[in-house]
Amino acid sequence: MDKIIKFFMDIGKLKRMPRRGWVIREIKNPESIADHTFRATLMAWVLAGKKDKKINMEKLLKMALIHDVCEIYAGDTTPYDSILPKDPKKRRELLKTWPRFTEKQKKRLADRKYKKEKAGLEKLTKNLPTALKNEMMSLWLDYEKGDSPEGKFFKHADRMEGFLQAAEYWKDDKKVSQKPYWVQAEEMHDDPVLLKFMEQISKEFLKGK
Amino acid sequence: MDTKTYYITREKLRELKKEYEELLGFEHNKSLIQDMPKVFESEDLNPEFVSFQEDIGFLRSRIDELKNIIDNHKLITAPAKNAQNIVGLGSKVKIDVDGQKDEFVIVGTLEANPALGKISNESPVGKALLGHKVGDEVVVSSHMNTTYKIRNIKYEVN
Asked: Do residues B54 and B93 both lie within one domain?
């Protein structure tokens, strides 16, 4: 099979891969990884336009498109995975909180996720032309590290998409706890554009609550 | 270019200076005539030339940004002994968050990585913790009202 066709067929699998964060929350017909990528890319584009600083839009949007493709082979992970109880009641309780770990555990979890996802991306892109393969890896590493303005902004915009999705699921079903998303967001976000957007989301969804 | 102050550790400053030097060298090489696309006739019309100019433009923009950070940085250092009981930049803070134990290092935006416990001083939680002492209960006032109780403060910066 043509290598490019094989690559696109692999990418197509993301349309049928539900995001694990919603699966463990028992959301019916949860969004797929491709669904998330689509809106996160649009959010990055639109919200980056509100920033004062110059952003390389081509780099940002390519990064957005590539950021989760490694999950085709690495699978989707959540911060809860290593501590998720089998008992549904205990699991629902745990999912009302943001998980806490020691410094050592944080490093170990981050390292394990990084290695697994990097290997997933290498497997996915191994038969692509070298320049394309290198570009994808370089964009993914930039996103992971969050070091360049594009990498840092998209890392945060990516989480903001999840924040909005959580609010939408909560609107339909109040059992989907908002608390962990708020806690994570308030410890993570420091970009003025995204903080303002977060405030707008909260006004939209929590008004009159 | 803005004149914001960037709070960074010595290690991060070293890393940024290295990137700056490398990009300057790269820009110099890229601007040499042999790297320039040879096929263009008109600078206004040829897409290859336009793309080349854009590459140079974005490289320059990163170089300018790094220079701005280097020129406007402030090193994160430990405060005087008598102020080390207060949460500040560079402090490692042990906390109880709504009854759960955790620990954060308060860093500048460029070094923030919440997955590793490095919280930006410009995030709502980072901002709220700054200036507090052991025993203080800090409520981050949002729609969820999360309480952060400070258990211990330590400075490990050089």
From this structure: no
Tell me, yes or no, whether B13 and B62 share the same domain: yes
Tokens of B143: 């729609």
- Residues with Cβ within 8 Å of A34's Cβ and at least 6 positions away in sequence, in order, are A14, A15, A17
Reported for B122-128, long-range contacts at CB under 8 A and 24+ positions apart, including other chains, are B122/A190, B123/A186, B123/A187, B123/A188, B123/A189, B123/A190, B124/A186, B124/A187, B124/A189, B124/A195, B125/A186, B125/A187, B126/A187, B126/A190
pTM: predicted TM-score of the whole model, two decimal places: 0.88
Angle at CA of residue A40, ends A36 and A45, nearest 5°: 155
**Nearest neighbour of A182 by CB, restricted to B103, B117, B144:** B144
How many domains does chain B divide into? 2
Interface test with B, best of A186, A195, A199 (most B CBs within 10 A): A186
Residues B86 and B44 in one domain: no
Give me the amino acid identity at B146.
Answer: T
Pairwise CA distance, residues A169 & A177, whole Å? 9
Q: How many contacts does A have with B, using Cβ atoms within 8 A?
A: 72
User: Pairing between strand B118-120 and B6-8?
Assistant: unpaired
Closest residue, chain A, to B15 (C-alpha):
A147
How much is the pLDDT for B51?
A: 53
Which domains does chain A possess?
Answer: 3-206 (1.10.3210.10)
Last residue of a domain, one of B55, B75, B95: B75
Q: What ipTM was assigned to the predicted interfaces of this complex?
A: 0.91
Print the domain residue range for B37: 6-75
CB contacts of B114 in chain A (<8 Å) are: 184, 187-188
**How confident is the prediction along chain A (209 residues), in pLDDT tens digits per residue?**
699 999 999 999 999 999 999 999 999 999 999 999 999 999 999 999 998 777 889 999 999 999 999 999 999 999 999 999 999 999 999 999 999 999 999 999 999 999 999 999 999 999 999 989 999 998 999 999 887 889 999 999 999 999 999 999 999 988 889 899 999 999 999 999 999 999 999 888 876 55
